[in-house]
Amino acid sequence: EIVMTQSPATLSVSPGERATLSCRASQSVSTYLAWYQHKPGQAPRLLIYGASTRATGIPARFSGSGSGTEFTLTISSLQSEDFALYYCQQFNNWPLTFGGGTKVEIK
Amino acid sequence: QVQLVESGEGVVQPGGSLRLSCAASGFTFSSYGIHWVRQAPGKGLEWVAFIPYGGNNEYYADSVKGRFTISRDNSKNTLYLQMSSLRAEDTAVYYCAKDAHPYGSGTQYFDYWGQGTLVTVSS
Question: Residue B85's pLDDT is what?
Answer without folding.
Answer: 97
